[in-house]
Here is the input.
Amino acid sequence: MRPGERGLRELDEIDRKLLRLLAADARRTNASLAAELGIAQSTCLARLNALRASHVIRGFTVDVEPGALGNALQALVFVRIRPGARHLMSEFGKAMTEVPGVTQAFFLGGDEDFLLHVSVRDAQDVRDFVVEHLSAHPAVANTRTSLVFEHLRGAEPWG
Amino acid sequence: MRPGERGLRELDEIDRKLLRLLAADARRTNASLAAELGIAQSTCLARLNALRASHVIRGFTVDVEPGALGNALQALVFVRIRPGARHLMSEFGKAMTEVPGVTQAFFLGGDEDFLLHVSVRDAQDVRDFVVEHLSAHPAVANTRTSLVFEHLRGAEPWG
DNA sequence: CGTGAAACCCACACGAC
DNA sequence: GTCGTGTGGGTTTCACG
Here is the structure.
């Protein structure tokens, strides 16, 4: 790694296993993690803090059933940016992540420029979202919406 | 709700705030959560366990920087299922989530049937993935791949 | 359901290797 | 980097409202 670059220090086998265990249950106690890794608690804690400090770990979150809070409908919205507004793309993406209901935003290469994953109550909410935040936006050329019948999470890439 | 049914009991304001706090940092101590919510620790723990038991909380995970483990490239792969193989779609989706590198699978309505989000090392890996797991699969009619330049996570829907 | 109190267990410094 | 230990604080149970 070049000096001054953000720390992407090599991860050893223990680091990877630690990440894998946390991916399965991020609320496990440090003691139980250490036991399964076969290292001392203090060592395990030091590694965990190092992974946080070096931004390998971005954070710990809870995975919530979307339907539990009245968000029964998910959709993917493809967005094409107006050719004359390409310089607004990065800004546009960030703005979209602030909109309630938008859970992910992909900045794409290819036919379409953006893909937004939205989780909302019903079809009316999707329409409102597209009309209010996309069609009205000066940078947006056009959009295309697909309903999500099922959303599956894959195995974490460091399996 | 009928007894024995999967609990989608109403969430009150405290439950929602609890989920929001956990979304921001899933490893916060129960004590600090209780303090911020203005309830007793034991009450907070009881609510947390209830949310887990009723499957409102699916789990706690760690958010890892994808590049940190050598996965520098992300792509979206759209998949069209062969008309005669529609009955294999559900099975196909589950199988895809087991493939290393596949982080998400969307089961779609619209032009295309599936969208796969893959996180891999380089372009060669994308090609290998498409050739080995998609083109060769009897249910797959055709695929289309878009590179992901940036992947942003949105605010959680219960903000 | 909610709570306070108490036993138990854990997190997180240290200092040493 | 790794480890063992101590102690302040957290987790969890339980009897009670």
Remarks:
- Chain A touches chain B through 66 residues (CB under 8 Å).
- The mean pLDDT of chain A is 91.
- The longest strand of chain A covers residues 140-153.
